Amino acid sequence: MNISDYLSALLLIAGGLFFLAGTLGLLRFPDIYTRLHALTKADNVGLGLMVAGLAIQADSWAVVGKLLLIWGLVLLAGASVAYLIANGALKRGIRLWRR
Amino acid sequence: MLFDALLGLLLLGLAWLLLSCRDLFKAIVLFVAFGLLMAIVWVRLDAPDVALAEVAIGAGLTGALLMSALAKLPVDNPPGRYSNEKTHWLLPLTLALMLLLVASGLGYALWSLPVIAPGLSGEVAANLEQSGVSNPVTAVLLNFRGYDTLLEIVVLLLALLGVWSLNSLDATPATAEKPANLVLDTLMRLLVPLLILVAAYLLWAGANSPGGAFQAGAVLAAAGVLLLLAGWRLPTALAGLPLRLALVAGPVAFITLAALTLLNARLLELPVEHAGMLILLLETFAMFSIGVTLAALFLGQRPQERGGSA
Amino acid sequence: MNSAILYALVGVGIFSLGLYALILHPHLLRKILAINVMGSGLFLVLIALAKRTGEPLPDLVPQAMVITGIVVAFSATALALALMVRVAKENHRAELSDDESQQP
Lengths: 99, 310, 104
Prior knowledge:
The structure holds 3 protein chains of 3 kinds.
Chain A: H1 3-28, H2 32-57, H3 61-91
Chain B: H1 2-20, H2 24-44, H3 48-72, H4 90-111, H5 121-127, H6 136-144, H7 146-166, H8 182-205, H9 213-229, H10 241-264, H11 275-299
Chain C: H1 3-24, H2 28-49, H3 60-91
């Protein structure tokens, strides 16, 4: 193990923690809007950290480019789908959670 | 090994959950999750080509298809009902016991299999040089066992014919005046060209790394599904002969090649010096047809034609 | 026990669970889901057993067959779902009844 291995291990574990937090939010938050919030935020950052951690280990710049492309696509799809789900929920009259 | 055991348990648990959960919508979501987990298992078992096919077709397209079918069911249908009558305890118990017996028998049979069985891997490796491609899975699909793939494409076409004859014409107007949703519309405009590019890449890469006509066709179909979800419909001028030509392009290319190879060799035995080029050509037609057929299966109804009667 | 046999046994388990649900649940969508789960279990057995080559590379012929199988399973599912939608339209419910006299 050299310094770059440690760095990517750190990034991967940090990414995993973000996924864990997002999943916890999905399970524990009270309504659909807060759940979406937890899920998209955590997954976008968590996947970003994982991509960074894997990019350090990549053999060539082409692989780094593909990893970044995957991240960009997930960001795009995640954001759009979160909007579509929330929009659909609002249209069906699902109320926002209030304490 | 520990990871494999955990993954196996998770798969079994997920299968049980998705089959016993009361809400059908939830069951479909769990089924998609099950498919994604299967894809991880395929990678663990050194089958990246299968993983790609599973993610694109097994989880993605099947999930979308199940969702759209669920939306077509009558709403008053009580989905909460777990079983038909008052569930008598005797039937499930007997069934569970019998299946336990069958499963133990199968498990014992698997357990007593030889630990090392090379199968056909030696033959594949020995003949890979002559196949024209360096990805052995593509070599098996398109060269060594090309007739399987030919019949499979015909099965796809037959399924589409069955679906078309079961349901009425698609009544959605050809072009919506207003996009159904601005975000969905923008997403579609960004993703569809990219998906077509990815399909072309998968097709090209399939010659020497994981990928190939089926995975590429599934990605192409995903682009079609996205277009259909965003409210786009095939222009009526294209829904007649052009659509049918697109559907049969793959089978026709395959059958033509099969007939030509019959002339100077055996069925679908590709000449070694042209094999690579022929496989790429076949895969291009097959990808196109597979993509169009899968997207048409998702629509589930015959699209409206110009001048056609409803 | 190696991981190939482990996954093959998991495949048998998934297959049996699917068969159980297929027989027990009357709703057609559940039956279609169950058949798909059974198929996944079957594919798992095939691919897991193909790993027993004793070399790093597994046997690739079953893998190619499973890719074919996934596509055929998809087209069968599409046809089954179309049939189900049609049955639901005729019967007003997506179930098959054991009792012939109950049919309208």
